[in-house]
Design brief:
This protein is an all-alpha fold. Helix content is 64%, strand content 0%.
């Protein structure tokens, strides 16, 4: 099959300029094709015709044909399907046909912008309103390269959106979405284009049937992400309802889509609006319920969203919600064996204790248990879990320093044990890896903080028996410059 990006280099004979009837015949012939190969070839010819023609006006029959051509790039709902786990094979040849549809419309609107009579532009755009509405949905459904799409479709979708924005004299995607519907959709409507789309989505993505429409679901998530503060507030209920439906699905791809929408919603609406009608509490409960998921891609999106809504929900002095969540996160960290999840958990424990502040003292023993457990186990060349544990230890010492003295011996033990472990391993090689260097720096940083908080640590490090077991790291400990530290905390 030919490369769709080569469409401009293909010859076409007997191109007749300014004859819309010829274009209509080509489009009509394309719609009558039963084979994908024939459809693609005719779409190529249509694109070439438009490329070499000058479209000066638009007729209603042509518009109807263009809308039907656009449907070739829209995956219809799976109405009669009983299960909703999709594979690439479920979407047939859409990934092959869509690029040619996008190329055709890109050429068409370039031609329209260049040659259409400016005095009739608004009337022509009104005639093309439904087509533009559909094309925005097509772009949203392909730009993130889902199952029915490809990298090529994603690139061409972005190009088509740029062309539409240029044709409609819009500087940003939001400017296009915010155009009045009376200009694009219906002369009697006063809504914006995005308001019409949200209403359309609310009807077709209800809790009962959104799973049958994966294409519109993907398009919805992309279009919603283009709406920013303060405009998103007008659609908060609709966006929240559909996003929570995505989140509650059993498939990770839908969970991630729901998390994307919710994070955007939380970031682009005011805290007060989220608190009205307990919206924030509903979102928090739904997000917290997803902590049982053990897929790294879902958790990467979940925790930032969860921590953001937590700041809005938990206004109490005792930070009850924060402590409940931290307690659950610590429990998951201590019981997890998969390295990729351990890395995720440790980094998010670090983030959460920063929100909790000094009250993380309530969890001090268990936090230090995480540090000890994680520092004992290697986790690959990057050593992300160990680095995360050292960062956690550093934050714990900084935040909970009034209680650290009771745990100073344990902290000193695990840090020195780590130093001996990582430096003894490379003692005879004479080579220091990037991860080893970072761990050495963080470990020494923790020791410096510990010495400031607990001056007695200096006495332990200077004990003669200590030197016998630390000969591998003597040169590293020299960087502490113990004699330069004061004997009491400043």
């Amino acid at each position: 099959m030919a490369d769709p990006m080569e469409v401009k280099t293909l010859p076409i004979e007997n191109v007749t300029l300014n004859q819309l009837s010829e274009l209509q015949n080509l489009l009509h012939e394309c719609l009558l094709c039963s084979k994908d190969e024939d459809t693609i070839e005719l779409l190529r010819k249509c694109a070439l015709f438009v490329e070499n023609s000058a479209i000066t006006t638009i007729t209603q029959p042509l518009v109807l044909l263009l809308e039907k051509i656009c449907d070739y790039a829209i995956v219809p709902p799976f109405v009669n399907r009983d299960y909703f786990s999709y594979e690439k094979s479920d979407f047939g040849s859409y990934s092959e046909t869509t690029p040619y549809v996008l190329i055709f419309f890109n050429s068409f609107f370039h031609n329209f912008k260049t040659n259409c009579d400016t005095s009739s532009t608004e009337e022509n755009l009104w005639m093309l309103a439904k087509l533009i509405f559909k094309l925005v949905i097509v772009v949203g459904g392909n730009v993130n390269c889902p199952l029915w799409s490809s990298n090529e479709c994603a690139k061409l979708s972005s190009q088509l959106m740029d062309t539409l924005m240029s044709t409609l004299k819009c500087e940003t995607t939001w400017d296009l979405l915010n155009l009045k519907a009376c200009y694009l959709v219906d002369k009697n409507e006063k809504e914006t284009l995005v308001a019409s789309f949200v209403s359309f989505s609310n009807e077709h993505l209800s809790s009962a049937n959104w799973q049958k429409n994966p294409f519109l679901s993907e398009s919805f998530s992309w279009i919603i992400e283009q709406i920013t503060l303060p405009y998103l507030s007008s659609y908060i209920n609709q966006v929240m309802a559909i996003s929570l439906s995505f989140l509650d699905d059993f498939q990770d791809v839908n969970k991630i889509r729901g998390l994307r929408c919710l994070m955007h919603l939380i970031s682009n609406t005011s805290n007060e609006e989220l608190c009205w009608y307990n919206r924030a509490d509903v979102i928090y409960s739904s997000l917290k319920h997803q902590m049982y998921v053990k897929d790294a891609s879902v958790l990467q999106k979940l925790f930032p969203c969860l921590f953001t809504i937590l700041k809005i929900v938990d206004k109490s002095v005792d930070l009850k919600y924060h402590h409940d969540l931290l307690d659950e996160l610590i429990r998951d960290s201590l019981s997890e064996n998969l390295l990729i999840l351990r890395r995720l958990y440790i980094s998010n424990v670090c983030s959460l204790i920063k929100q909790v502040g000094v009250s993380c003292i309530c969890h001090l023993s268990r936090l230090l248990k995480i540090v000890e457990q994680f520092l004992e186990t290697e986790d690959g060349e990057d050593e992300l879990a160990r680095l995360g544990a050292l960062q956690l230890l550093r934050n714990v010492i900084l935040l909970a320093w009034p209680r650290i003295s009771k745990h100073s011996k344990l902290i000193l033990k695990v840090v020195l044990k780590l130093l001996v472990d990582i430096n003894g391993k490379y003692y005879y090689d004479g080579k220091e890896t990037c991860a080893q260097s970072q761990m050495n720096d963080l470990a020494l940083d923790c020791l410096r903080l510990l010495i400031k908080v607990c001056p007695d640590t200096v006495v332990c490090l200077q004990h003669p028996d200590m030197a016998k077991g630390l000969h591998h790291v003597a040169n590293i400990l020299e960087r502490l410059k113990i004699d330069a530290f004061p004997t009491n905390m400043t």
